[in-house]
Amino acid sequence: MSTGEQVLDSPSGWVAAHINRYVDTGGADGHEWRPGVFTLLLTTRGRRSGKLRRTALIYGRDGDAYLVVGSQGGDPRHPAWYLNLLAEPEVQVQVGDERFTARARTATAEEKSRLWATMTGIWPAYDDYQAKTDRDIPVVLLERV
After folding, report:
1. What family is it from (predicted)?
2. 83-101 confidence digits (pLDDT tens)
C-alpha cells in the first residue's frame, strides 16, 4: 500500500470532522474520542475502486495487536472497511501520532469470545449491536508487519 496516494475519507458529518481533526493534529485531538475510549484511523484499499479509504474506529489491545470491531451499529451488512480488508489485508494504521503498516485478520471463533469481552469492556454497546443483527459481528486484529 503506497502512502503517497490520496486517501479518501469515506464517512461524512461528525465522523469526517473527527478524522480531519485527528489527521491535522497528529492524533492530539481525536485519539481519545470519549473519556477512556480511544480511536485509531484505519486505511484500507477499496475492493472495487482500488482507492485508499480511511475511517476512525474504537480500538482495544491484545498484546501487540490492535483490535477493532466490524459492528456498523448492528447493520445487517458488514462495513465497507471490513469487506475491503478481506480483499486486501495490508492496511495502514494511525494511533495517535504513530503510523504503521499492519496486516488485518478476522479473529478465529476460539479467539473471538475473549477478544469480544475486551472490546465490550471498552464499548458495551457492541453487545446491543450484535443483538440487533443475525450477522456475526467480526473482531479484527491489526498486526504490525
Report:
1. Belongs to the F420H(2)-dependent quinone reductase family.
2. 999 999 999 999 999 999 9
Comparing C-alpha atoms, which of 88, 68, 77 is closest to residue 136? 77
Nine-digit cell string for 66: 490492535
Is the whole-model pTM more than 0.90? yes
CB 41 within 8 A of CB 54: yes
Tell me the pLDDT tens digit for each residue of 68-84: 999 999 999 999 999 99
Domains for the chain: give ranges and CATH numbers.
7-144 (2.30.110.10)
- Contact (CB, 8 A) for 64 and 113: no
CA distance 115 to 144: 18
Query: CA 20, CA 109: separation in Å to the nearest integer?
Result: 35
DSSP state of 74: G
